[in-house]
Amino acid sequence: MAVLGAVAFMAQLDFFVVNVALDGIGHSFPGTSVASVSWILSAYAIVFAAVLVPAGRIADHRGRKKMLLSGVALFTLTSAVAAAAPSLGVLVGARALQAVGAAMIVPTSLGLLYPSFPKRQHTLVVGLWAGVGAIAASAGPPVGGLLVTLDWRWIFLINVPVGIATLVAGALLLPEVRQPRGAAVPDAASALALLLAVSLLVLATVQGPGWGWTDLRTVALFAAAALAAAATVERTLRAKAPVIEKRLFAGRQFTAATAALFLFSAGFAIVLLSTALFMQEVWHFSPLRAGVSIAPAPLTSIAFATNAGPIQHRFGRTAPAVTGTLAMALAAGYWIASVHTTPDYWGGMFPGLILVGLAGGLTQAPLFAAAGTLAPERATTGSAVLNMSRQIGSAVGVALLVALTPQATTTGFDHAWSVQASAGIAAAGALLALRPRHTP
C-alpha cells in the first residue's frame, strides 16, 4: 500500500505542483514568453491524458508490475533531467517524457491493488489510493509554494530519491499480474486513434484561450480530434481487441463514474488554479503565502479520504460522491458571495477551502472504486479510462479559467466559479441519473 500510494502521489502531484513555479522558471530563462513557459504545463497535460489508456491496456497484457516499475524509472530519470535543464526546450521535453512515465504509473498502481489485497479490503485500499490522488491535487500549490522559495528546480529534484526508493521497494514487494498467455494483443489502430483523439482534443483546449476559439488552428484541431474519436469508436465496435473495450461501459456504475469524473475534474481544476491565482494576483500574496493558505483543503481531504472505506460501507458509493460534488458547487457559491478585492482570508476564502477539501476527500474515492466493478483482468484499463476522463476534464477546466479571467478581476473569477458550481451540480446529476438499479 505504501509503495503504490507513494508512486501514485508522486506522479499526480507533479501535474499540480508546477503551477506556482511558472514565474520563477520564466525568470531563469530570459527572453522566453509566457506562452512558451506555459508549455511546461501543457506538454505534461497533453501527453499524460493521451498515453493513459494505451499504457493501461499494455500493462494488463504484458504485466502490471513490469509497466509500473518501468514508469517509475522513466519518471525518476526525466525528473532529474528537468531539474538540471539548461534551457526551456529541454525542460519541456523532459516534462513530456515525465508524463509518459506518470501515465504508466497511475492506472497500473490502482490495477495492482486488487490482486495485492483480499476482496474484503478492496473498498478500504481503493479509498486510500483515491484519497492519495485527492491530496496530491490539493497539496500541489502548497508544496510548490514551499519548494519555490528554495529554487524551482527542487520541484523536480525531490522526485529522484522518492523514485529510487519506490523502485527498489516495488521490485521486492509487488506481485506480477498479467492476462493469461495467448490473450489477444491490443489493437494498434484503435490505440493510435485514441492517442490522436485525446492529444488533439487537449491541445485544442489548452491553446484555445490563447489562439481564440474561432481561430482556424483551434477549429482544425477540434475537427481532427472529432475524426480521430470517430475512428476510435469504430475500432471499439469492430476490432477483435480494441484498446477500449465496449464491455467496460456495460455497467452503469463505471459509466456514471467516467462521466462524473470528467465534470468534477473540470470544476476541481478551476478550484486549484483560481484560488492560487486570486490570492497572488488580486490580494498580492507571495507564492509561499498563497500555497500555505490553500493548505486547509488538502488537510480536510486527508481526514475524509482516510475514512473512505467506512464511509462507503455505511452510505454506499453514490451518496458520498454526490455530497462531495455538491460541496464543490457550494464552495463556488460561497466565494462568489464573499470573496472581494479587499483581502479577507478567514471570512472569504477559508470556508470555501474547507468545502473543497470535503469535496476532494469524499468524491474521488468512490468514483475510482468503480474500476473494481470490472473483471479483474480489466482493472488497469478501467483505471486508465477513469484517469483519462479526469485529465481531459482538468484540461477543460484550466482552459475555461484562462478564458474567463484574461484580467485578474473579481468579475472574471466570479464567472469561473460559476462554471465550477455548474460542473459540481452536473456531476451530481450524472451520478444520480446513472446510479445502479437495485434488484431483489
Strand and helix layout:
Blueprint lengths: L1 H15 L5 H7 L5 H4 L1 H24 L1 H20 L4 H29 L5 H27 L5 H4 L1 H15 L14 H24 L4 H23 L13 H30 L5 H8 L1 H10 L2 H8 L2 H21 L6 H24 L10 H26 L5 H24 L7
Summarize the structure.
This protein is an all-alpha fold. It has helices spanning 2-16, 22-28, 34-37, 39-62, 64-83, 88-116, 122-148, 154-157, 159-173, 188-211, 216-238, 252-281, 287-294, 296-305, 308-315, 318-338, 345-368, 379-404, 410-433.
Q: Could you walk me through the main structural features you see in this protein, from its secondary elements to its overall organization?
A:
With 440 residues, this protein is mainly α. It is built from 19 helices and no strands. α1 runs antiparallel to α9, α5 (64-83) packs antiparallel against α6 and α7 packs antiparallel against α14. The protein starts with a helix and ends in a 7-residue tail after the last helix.
Main traits of this protein?
mainly alpha
SS content category: mainly alpha
Number of strands: 0
Number of helices: 19
The gross shape turns out to be: globular
Helix content: over 70%
| C-alpha Rg (nearest Å) | 20 Å
Following the backbone from N to C, one meets helices and strands in this order, namely: HHHHHHHHHHHHHHHHHHH
User: For this entry, what is the oligomeric state of its chains?
Assistant: single chain
Instruction: Give the terminus-to-terminus CA distance.
Output: 36 Å
Q: Give the amount of beta strand, in percent.
A: under 5%
Low-confidence stretches: none
> What average pLDDT do the residues reach?
87
The largest sheet is: none
